[in-house]
Design goal:
It catalyses: S-sulfanyl-L-cysteinyl-[protein] + uridine(34) in tRNA + AH2 + ATP = 2-thiouridine(34) in tRNA + L-cysteinyl-[protein] + A + AMP + diphosphate + H(+). It is an enzyme of class 2 (transferase). The chain has 368 residues and is an alpha/beta fold. The strands form four sheets. It has a six-stranded antiparallel barrel with strand order 12-15-14-13-16-17. Strands 3-2-1-4-7 form a five-stranded parallel beta sheet, with helices on both faces. A four-stranded mixed beta sheet has the order 9-8-11-10, with no helix packed on it. Helix 1 runs parallel beside helix 2 and helix 1 crosses helix 6. The two termini are 43 Å apart. About 1% of the residues have low confidence.
Length: 368
């Protein structure tokens, strides 16, 4: 096969490219230029896609003896990921830009361009596994290394995209990947992993949003509507948040308060007690299926954060919408997050959370 290896400049994508080459594929390394004003150097382990990262990827490609190119996708990334992220926060939602990047950039823009140029597939350094079934279908599964598993952020891929995707690291734990990189002579074997949001390298999401959206002073209110504080922009808050609220009036019972709702229309942030965060029902839209969509009511594992716990649940789909009923309450489920559904280690699909609520335990899903 002719394969594009997406090379970020990190150790994972370097080893992924090497393994594809070892497997006998014709491999070309591609670094995605996603920033319209890329920094020269990384800021510790935050961020990515710097000029330094592009240089690191090129040097690994030289060691492997494979062609290497930089593809400029900054405009597409800005439109489909950065602007989407900004709009979602402005609407009082909490998006995950990594899912959107995988959906719109790495397995849409990159894959489409690769196929147009005559390539068969794209390989990345994600920690996840592709399993082929007896009838030839390809399924997305969790990685062996549960601490590094990235199947959650890949839950937006559909069956066609999975048919042209390779994740060579899914069967290996991260310490072994670093050892392998050193054995191959990759100078980046000890390079720190990137984390947080790549286009906010200093980690200050609130400051970044304020610079883009401007200050918008408003009230922080309790569930009775009483003003208990003020803010400079409701967009800087998310459901479940406790720190950084700056409340001017403590709760009468002295208990900590959390953000329980963000109201962009009135520019209010609502705070309440921890108990108000507990929900057992989730409604999602923008459903994406990694294979055939579920038929009727099915038992699933539901995960609402990239490295969060999987929760036992029941789910059913209706066109592009998904309903999830959790066996037990979970906390801090915010609109805009994604819920990813699992059947064992297999990823069924995902949906963007539109709403969450607490329903009586007697509430039953519709009959098959």
């Amino acid at each position: 096969m002719r394969v594009v290896a997406a090379m970020s400049g990190g150790v994972d994508s370097a080893v992924a490219a090497a393994r594809m080459l070892d497997a006998g594929h014709e491999v070309v390394g591609v670094h995605l230029a996603l920033s319209q004003s890329a920094a020269t150097l990384r800021e510790s382990a935050r961020g990515c896609c710097t000029i330094e990262d592009a240089g690191d990827a090129r040097r690994v490609a030289d060691v492997l003896g494979i062609p290497f190119y930089v593809w400029d996708m900054a405009a597409r990334f800005s439109r489909d990921v950065v602007e989407d992220f900004t709009r979602e926060y402005a609407a009082g939602r909490t998006p995950n830009p990594c899912l959107r990047c995988n959906e719109k950039i790495k397995f849409a823009a990159l894959l489409d361009k690769a196929v147009a140029l005559g390539f068969d597939a794209v390989a990345t350094g994600h920690y996840a596994q592709i399993v082929e079934t007896a009838d030839g279908r390809r399924e997305l599964h969790r990685a062996v290394d549960t601490a590094k598993d990235q199947s959650y952020v890949l839950g937006v891929l559909d069956a066609d995209q999975l048919s042209r995707a390779f994740f060579p690291l899914g069967d290996t734990e991260k310490p072994r990947i670093r050892e392998e990189a050193a054995e191959r002579g990759f100078f980046i074997a000890k390079k720190p992993d990137s984390h947080d949001i790549c286009f906010i390298p200093d980690g200050d999401t609130r400051g970044w949003l304020t610079r883009r959206l401007g200050e918008a002073p408003g009230d922080i209110v309790d569930t009775s509507g009483e003003v208990v504080g003020h803010h400079d922009g409701a967009f800087a808050f998310t459901v479940g948040q406790r720190r950084g609220l700056g409340l001017s009036r403590p709760a009468s019972d002295g208990r900590p308060r959390y953000v329980v709702e963000v109201r962009p229309r009135t520019n209010e942030v609502v705070v309440g007690t921890e108990e108000l965060l507990g929900v057992n029902a989730i409604s999602g839209d923008h459903a994406r299926w990694c294979g055939p969509p579920p038929e009727g009511v099915v038992r699933v594992g539901a995960q609402v954060r990239a490295h969060g716990e999987e929760h036992a649940a029941t789910a059913w789909a209706d066109d592009g919408r998904v309903e999830v009923r959790l066996d037990e309450r979970i906390r801090g489920v915010a609109p805009g997050q994604s819920v990813v559904l699992y059947d064992g280690t297999r990823v069924i699909g995902s949906a963007t959370i539109a709403a969450s609520r607490l329903e009586p335990v007697t509430t039953a899903p519709p009959a098959d």
